[in-house]
Amino acid sequence: MALLKDYHTHLISSATLNRVVRTDFYTSDIHQHSNQTDLLFINDGQDLLQMDLKNWLNEMNAPLMVVGIHAGIDRKQEYGVAGMPDFMNRGARAEQYANFIMQELLPHVNNVLGDCTVRNKYVAGFSLGGLMAFDLAMEFPTDFNAAGVFSGSFWWRSKDLKDGYVEERDRIMHAKIRTKKHNAHQRFFLQTGALDEKADRNKNGIIDSIDDTLDIIKELESIGFDKESQIKYVELADGAHDLATWSRVMPGFLTWLNVK
After folding, report:
1. Cα–chain-centroid distance for residue 39?
2. Helix-strand-coil percent breakdown of the chain, rounded to 5?
3. Domain spans, the chain
4. DSSP letters along 88-101, please?
5. Which CATH architecture has domain 7-257?
């Protein structure tokens, strides 16, 4: 099946990020005839150009606009956990990126939509972009009804392994969840693959990508999120840390979003 790259590109001159941000707007056909829609923001939007997104949106049979946000050359600084860079000071501009989403991109999207009512807003991303998506959901729980994380970089840590790293203390996102409160109206979709990587920090026979994501689920449960109704976990035995794997999972994620 040929890819239907049916999208409209908007270039946003961001004062917050001090760069021009390319965003691609994808819509389902039903969106064109509806006065209401859901919104899905996806980090690393350049990856969507290689996905069959238009067909998947039409198969949903529900109004949805996807905004693919292209990463800049400073991706490892703009993606991360807001206000909490890792031990190498990566993610130092994650707070600015969050501000761009909320203060510049969202108003632009609302202007594009005009009189069309936004019902729900979602955010998603791949790898480090997935970590950033999860952080946006944590920081703005009343704005984002759901978050999708594909092979998320939940290993993000405040201390290097050789410098006295303690798993329970130094994984940044896990620690951040403990400072948050349960939101009964929020859901999370978390995907990993057994071939995401080979690293196994604690030598328990489970790769870090899976270990860290399962622990994220435990942290969410510890503050009140229900594992059955609010958390969806997908683990692929043949899933790798690549676009081919994430493309396989994306249709299921879109379907999951539409099940309220």
Report:
1. 13
2. 40, 25, 35
3. 7-257
4. T-TTTTHHHHHHII
5. 3-Layer(aba) Sandwich (3.40)
Q: Residues with Cβ < 8 Å from 165, sequence gap 6 or more?
A: 157, 159
Tell me the pLDDT band of 4, cut-offs 50, 70 and 90: very low
Residue 143 and residue 123: Cα distance in Å, rounded? 10
pLDDT tens readout for residues 45-79: 999 999 999 889 988 878 899 999 999 999 999 99
* Among 51, 44, 67, 37, residue whose Cα is nearest residue 5: 51
pTM over the 0.85 mark: yes
| DSSP assignments along 125-175, one per residue | EETHHHHHHHHHHHH-TTT-SEEEEES--TT-BSS-GGGT--HHHHBHHHH
**Mean pLDDT along residues 8-27:** 96
